[in-house]
Amino acid sequence: MKTEDMLKALTEAPGISGSEEDVAHLLRNYFARLTDEAFIDKFNNVIGIKKGTSSAGKVMMAAHIDQIGFLVHTFEEGGFIRIAPIGGHDPRVLPGQSVIIYGKEIIRGVIGTTPPHLQKSGDTGKVTALEELYVDTGLKEEDVKARLRIGDPVLFDNVCTRMAGGYYSAAAMDNRAGVLVLLETLRILKGLKHQWDVYMVGTVQEEVGTRGGALTAYEIKPDVGIAIDVTFGDFPGIPDRQTSKLGGGGAVAVGPNFHPQLTERLIALAQDWEIPFQKEFNPRPGGTDAVSMQIAARGVPMVQVSIPLRYMHTTVETLDLQDIRRAGRLLALFAAHIDEIHGEVVG
What we know:
By secondary structure, this protein is α+β, with helices and mostly antiparallel strands.
C-alpha cells in the first residue's frame, strides 16, 4: 500500500482519546504485514514486534494514535447539543465546522454560533467560548435523544487533502503522521539486519496525559525508547527559533528529557547517511509520550523525532510527506545500529 494511501486511511479513521478502537484495528492490520507479531492490548494500545537476530535488547518506538475531539455533554430544547472538549482546542476555529457524532448511528452536524449580524455591539471581535458552542444536527429533540447518548464521541468531519508540493492536510495529522513514521520505519527495516527486537507501539490517550506511553513502556521495559510525534511547522508571524521547517526533515529533540549521547549518535547517523534533519530544543519535558516513557519502571533512555506540522490542533494540520519518509529512514538505521550504539554510550 502506498504511503499516501496509508496516510489518508490513518487520518480519516476515528480515534478520539479513550475511544481509539477503529484506528487501533487499522494499525494492527498494518503492523501484521510488517512484524512477527501484532496485537491490541486491553487499553487499545497497538503493539507490533519485529524480532532481531539476537534479541539481545529491546528498542521501543512509540507514536500516539488518539486525536482531539469532543463528547456529547447535554441535550437542549430544539435538538441542539452542547459538547465538551477532549484535548486542547483553539476555540477561534470551531464555529462553522462540520462534525460527525459516533452514537448509536453516525450523525453529521455543524458547530453553530451567533452570526455577526445578530451579535451585540462590541462582541463581533470576541472569540466564542467553548461552553457557548453547540452542534446542530437538524434533528428534533426526541430524535436526538433516541439516536445519541451523553458521552458519545464527536469528531471533525475530516478528509485528507493532497496539496501542492508534496504537502497533505487533515485534522488528525497529530499524531497519525508519527504512526505513519512507524510504518515507514518497518518497511525499510525489512531490508536491514537488526540485532535487537523492535517494538512498534501506537499509544492511546496521549492527548489527555500520555497514558498509553506509560502503560506500554512499563510492560515492555525497553532498553531504549524513541518517541515520534509532531512539532510546530514554520508559518508567517512566528520566529524561526520556535518552529521547524516543512521539508527540512524530522526534528531531533535535545533537552533534559532525552539521552544526550544517544541523541548525538542519532544525529551522526543522519549526517553520515546524508538524511536531512533538524534540531529542536526542548528545555523542559513537553506533552509527548517521551515524558512518561522516560520514567517507566527503572527508567528508559529516550530520543525523540518529530514531524514539522503547521496549524496544530485545527482541521487543516499540514505537513510535507517527505519528512515522514526521511524520519522513517533515519529511525530504521538507528534500529539497525542500536546494539552497537547502546554498548558504546549507555553500557
